[in-house]
Amino acid sequence: MLGVHQPVLADEPQNAPPSAAPTTSPFVAIPKRLGAELTSDFKWSVNNLEADGEDIVTSPCHAGELLQKPAFWWTGLAAAAALGGAFALDTPVQIHTKHISHGVADTFESGGQIALWSATAVIYGWGMWTDDARSRRYMLTSVASTAIAGLLAKGAKAAFGRLRPDANQGAFQFWKGGDSFVSSAATPAFALAAGLSEWGGNRWYVAVPAYGAAAAVGFGRMGKDAHWLSDIVGSALIGVGTTELFLYLHDGHDAEPSRYRIFPVVRSDGAGIGVSWDF
Question: What is the per-residue pLDDT for 28?
Answer without folding.
Answer: 56
